[in-house]
Design a protein that fits this description.
This protein is of the alpha+beta class. It has helices at residues 14-24, 33-40, 49-63, 111-129, 191-216, 228-240, 244-248, 250-259, 264-279, 289-306, 314-327, 332-343, 353-362, 366-379, 385-400, 405-411, 423-432, 442-449, 453-468, 474-492, 499-505; strands spanning 2-5, 8-11, 30-32, 73-76, 80-83, 97-101, 135-137, 151-160, 163-172, 177-186. Among the domains are: 2-83, Arc Repressor Mutant, subunit A; 97-216, Rossmann fold; 220-348, Serine Threonine Protein Phosphatase 5, Tetratricopeptide repeat, CATH 1.25.40. 54% of the residues lie in helices and 11% in strands. The strands form 3 sheets. The protein has a 5-stranded mixed β-sheet, with helices on one face. Strands 3-5-4 form a 3-stranded antiparallel β-sheet. Strands 1-2 form a two-stranded antiparallel ribbon. Helix 4 links the parallel strand 6 and strand 7 (135-137). The radius of gyration is 30 Å and the shape is elongated. It starts with a strand and ends in a 6-residue tail after the last helix.
Length: 511
Amino acid sequence: MFVHRNGQTLQFTRNERALLLAFTGNPRRLMTRSRLLDEIAQPGSDPSDRNIDFLVNRLRLKLGDNAKSPSFIATQYGEGYVWIATPSRTDPIDAFLIIGPTFELQSHPLRQQSLSLMGKLQEMIAAGIGAGHKVVVLERHLLAAYDKLRYFLQVSFHADAGRINCAATLREMPSKRIVKAFRLHLDSADDGSFANEASRVSEGVVSVLQRALKEASNGLGVPTDEAPEVRHRSGSTLLSVSNPKWLASGEQLAKGREQDPFDADAAIQWGLHLFARLVLTSPFEGIDLAERDRIEGEIETTVLECLPEIEDRPLLMLGAAKLLYFINRGHLELAEEIVERALTRIQDFTAALPILGQLRFARGHFDEAVGFFNQGIRAAEPGSEFHRHMRVLKYIALLAAGQNAPSAAQATDMSNLGTDCPPEIALMIGWLAVQPDQALPNVSERAAAELGSHRATRAIEYLYFTSTRHVRSEEGRANIMRNMIAHLSRLYGQKVVPDFVLSSIGSLASA
C-alpha cells in the first residue's frame, strides 16, 4: 500500500500495487510486458507497452531505484523486466498451526469472506486441540516464514458464476507434506454454509492433529494412557539424565530386541541402556578401554540402523541425537539435524534442552550452551535429578569457557548437589572446583590420597569420556581437565594421566 523512504510515506496506486505484487511474486524471473499488462488490466482499459514502461519508471522512483544501476527492477532490453532485489530475512512465526491463504488478501474481492471463514476455523481448531498449541490466522501468503512451523492449513478461494470454490489443505511443516485435504461447499448468500463447513473442516483437522500429538509423545516406554503433555514430561526425564531405569532394564530390553530386532523404539532404549552402562559405572573403577570402544560401536550401529524408522517420533529422535553426540564419532552435524527436525514436531522442548546445550558446547559456543542449560534449570523442579543434571552441564560449560573454577561452582551452586547425588561424582566435582595452586579440603584430599594410582587414572578417563572429549577446541578440553589432573598428578605423578588425554589437551594442561 505504501513505502517509507527518506522520512516520507509514498502511496502506491492500484496499478503500481498490482505491478509490485507481480514482481515480488516472481523474483529473478523475466516478466514480459504482455505478462505485466495482464496483471494491471482493468475492464474497459486498453493499456499499451508504453504504459508499462511509464508505470515501471514511476514505481522505480518511489522505491528509490535507478535504471542504470538497479537494486530492485532490472531492464531486459527488448523483452521486459526482472525483480532482482535481495530478499530480507523473514523471522519464523511462533505458532503450532497457521491458517493462511494461497494468495494476497489485501485487495482480493473475496477478502472478507476468506477472513471470516479462516477466523471460524481458527476459533474451532484452537478449542479442539487445547491450550498450549497456538493457532494463528495470516492475511498474507508468507511461506518463507513457515519453515519452523508444525502445521499449515492453506486455504484457496475462487469465485465462479456466483459460486465460491474453496479448498483447505493441511500440510506438515517444514516438509510441506499434505496430510489432509478438504473441499468446501460455500454459498456466498448463505452465512450458515460458512459456519457448517468451518465446523466440518475443523473436526477433520483436529482429529489429525490430536492423533499426531499422541504419536509424537510415543516411545521410550512412556505410558500411552497419559495426556501428551504428561508423556512429554516423562520422556524429558528419561532423556535428560543418566536414568538408572536403563541400567536396570537391560535383560528385559535384550529379550525385546531378540523378539523384534526391527523395533526402533526398542533399539533406542537399548542404546540408552548401553549408554547407562558407560556413565553409571563407578568413575574410580571405570570400564576397560577396549570394552568401552566395543559398547560405543554397538551404540553407533544400533542408532544409525534405526534412524529411518524414527522420523515421526521426536522422543526417539532426541534419544538418537543424545547417543550420537555422546559416542563422539564424528556425528555432530547429524545429531544437530536430528534435533532440529524433532523440534518441529513438539511444543514442549524441555527434553531437548540438554542436547541443544551440549551441541553448542561441543562447537565451543559456550554462551549459547549456558543459555540452554539456564532454561532447563528454570524449567526443572528444584532438587530434582533433572535440575542437578542441568546445573552440572552448565558448570562444565563455564569451566570450558575459561571461567575460574570457584566462580563457576558458585554460579551453579555445586556445593549443594543434594543427598541423592552419587558420592563419587560429588568428589570429582569437588576436585574440579579447586584451582591447581590451592589445597583441597581435608576430606577431599584424603579421598584423593586413598584412591591409588590405577583408580586415579580411571577417574581422569571418566571425566574425559563423559564431559571433555566432545569439545572441539583444545583449550576448552584443557580448561575442563586441568584442575583434576593437577591434584591427582601431584599425588601420583604425571604417569597417572593417560597418553590419549595428554595428547588431547597438549601443553595447555599445565598452563
